[in-house]
Task: structure prediction
Amino acid sequence: MTGAVSLLSTYADKAKLNPSLDENGYTKALQDTSWADGLRGIAAVFVMFSHLTMAFARWIVIPCYGKNGAAYLMQRPIFRLVAQGSAWVAIFIILSGFVNSLKAVKLARAGQTEPALSNLATSSFRRSFRLVLPATAATILSWFITQLGAYDTAKKSDAYWLYTTSPNPSSSWGTAAEDLVHAIRTTWTYNPENPYDQPQWALLYLLQGSMFVFTALLVTINLTPRWRILTIMLLYFWSWNWGIKLGDPMVGVNVFTGIILAELNHSEYPLRFSKLSPILAPPLVVCGLVLMSFPSQFQDWAPWSDFLQRMFFKIAPRNAEMSRFWPTIGAQVLTFTVVMSPHLRRALGHRWFLWLGKISFPLYLLHGSFMRSILAWMLFSRQHLTEIEEEGHKYTRYPLPGRLTFVVVMPIFMLLLFTATHFWAIKVEPHFGKITKMAEDIMFGKSEHNTALPLRKD
Result:
């Protein structure tokens, strides 16, 4: 018993998320940018939660039952963030802009323009490979188990997100090979769609965002910080107009927000306002989370979302998408608050959040395949096909199991999923890094391979 108490006490000490900060603590916390990894990990977990919600608890998606009707706890602001996948994708894109511009902005502020440009070129090159290679591997894995019939149970279940995102096996292996090439290609084309891994729709926009960072900083790298920020802010407001022409109107505004946050991170303002953090940060965080909770449909049903809907029509740019406008603004408010708050930075830099950040991309890529295969088997293997009526149509599906089954199955599934993503992060991801480094050495002329055309000797 004594040993158990000692172990729990040790864990409690290590798990403190908001230790007190002295003057040096403020400075140290504001120099640390590992919070971005922690927040990215949390965002990945909530994206997974949003798909679980769409599969098994779609009632959370609406803000209440009927116009001014009753609302359950999980339908209310902040609690309903488990269903707000688009808000967490906005976090991903903001952090992408922040991380990709962080070092280049630091070098530019130090007057090291050439190293800054070199860093931009290298990071953009690596970003392309580090997105495409893991995504392709995850697509191949999902494609292969599709051909083996691993998604058949999910396809026949009454779990909405499972049966709508589970592809059918191809008619032959020859056709399957063609389907695989098509899936990989359409992941990176306009209006991206990957039938074998639906969450990959966002990857094109993450890649697009990294190109925005490169282009914007390439143009502004020689400007003073003040004029660079003003120019990026101009691009931010301008992108509300032209962003929709590129497939997603929210990519530009979020990426440019990330660049502005990188500039803010290297300025004196976070330290100047650090002592006000305990006062200002909590209401700003609540405000951001409430805005991120804005529902994607039936916004006029609940008073709080109806108010935001009416505000949208008054202040939003013409091309803004209402279902994503407020979640995007909320994500920007939240990340701004974190940059300005040493306490939030310290909390998000906790080792458990950093671990989530380490596995965030594998979790994003693998959770859909695991849900459609392992989770579907665990939940529906003992169910019998039943005729279910939905919107006037009758279907034969496996009904959702009882709550006790979920209580027993979900912890086991989470253990399996997080173990697999951890294995992917430490065993598989390094191989993608090696391939990226090899390509960089060859294409940047760092290797000793002969050039395609002989060099002149004069």
Notes: The chain has a mean pLDDT of 89.
